[in-house]
C-alpha cells in the first residue's frame, strides 16, 4: 500500500497537471475564428479528448485514497475535486487568447509539454517499479492511437 505522503503527492501532481489541460481547452475556445483551423468543432474535439482522458485521471486520485482506507464517496469526491481546476484554467486560457493573442502558440506548447512531462516524469517510472512497465507502455500507445483517431476522425 502507498504511504499517505506518496498518495498526497500523486493527488497534487494530477491536480496541477489539470491546469494546463484546462488552459488548452480555454485557449482552443478563445481562439475560435482567429485562424481557419480554430473552429468550434476543433475546440469541442479538444474538450472531448481531454474530458475522456480525465476519467482515468480521476480514478488515479480516487483509487489510492480508497485503498488507503478513505470512504468510497469521499474518495470519489476528491477524484472529482482534482479536476475542478480545469474550468478555472480554461477561463484563464480563453481570456489570455482574447487579450493576448500572441501568447497562443506558447500557451498550447506549455500545455502539451506539461502533460507529456507529468506522464514521463511521474507515472511511467512508477509503473516500471510496480512491474507494470510493459502494460503502461502498451496503454500509452493505445491511448495515443485513440486520441489521434479522434483528432483525425472528428476534424
UniProtKB/TrEMBL annotation:
Record lineage: Eukaryota, Metazoa, Porifera, Demospongiae, Heteroscleromorpha
Membrane topology: Multi-pass membrane protein
GO terms of molecular function: zinc ion transmembrane transporter activity
GO CC term, one of those recorded: plasma membrane
UniProt keyword list: Cell membrane, Membrane, Signal, Transmembrane, Transmembrane helix, Zinc
Matching Pfam families: Zip (PF02535)
Organism annotation: Geodia barretti
Places the protein is found: Cell membrane
Protein name in the entry: Zinc transporter ZIP11
Family named by the database record: Belongs to the ZIP transporter (TC 2.A.5) family.
Keyword Transmembrane helix assigned: yes
Amino acid at each position: 500500500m502507498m504511504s499517505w505522503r506518496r498518495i498526497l503527492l500523486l493527488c497534487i501532481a494530477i491536480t496541477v497537471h489539470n491546469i494546463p489541460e484546462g488552459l488548452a481547452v480555454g485557449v482552443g475556445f478563445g481562439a475560435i475564428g482567429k485562424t481557419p483551423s480554430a473552429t468550434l468543432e476543433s475546440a469541442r474535439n479538444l474538450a472531448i479528448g481531454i474530458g475522456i482522458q480525465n476519467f482515468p485521471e480521476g480514478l488515479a486520485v480516487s483509487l489510492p485514497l480508497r485503498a488507503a482506507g478513505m470512504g468510497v464517496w469521499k474518495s470519489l469526491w476528491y477524484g472529482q475535486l482534482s479536476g475542478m481546476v480545469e474550468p478555472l484554467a480554461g477561463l484563464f486560457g480563453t481570456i489570455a487568447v482574447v487579450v493576448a493573442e500572441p501568447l497562443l502558440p506558447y500557451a498550447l506548447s506549455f500545455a502539451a509539454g506539461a502533460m507529456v512531462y507529468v506522464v514521463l516524469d511521474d507515472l511511467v517510472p512508477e509503473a516500471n517499479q510496480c512491474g507494470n512497465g510493459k502494460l503502461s507502455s502498451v496503454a500509452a500507445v493505445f491511448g495515443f492511437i485513440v486520441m489521434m483517431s479522434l483528432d483525425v476522425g472528428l476534424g
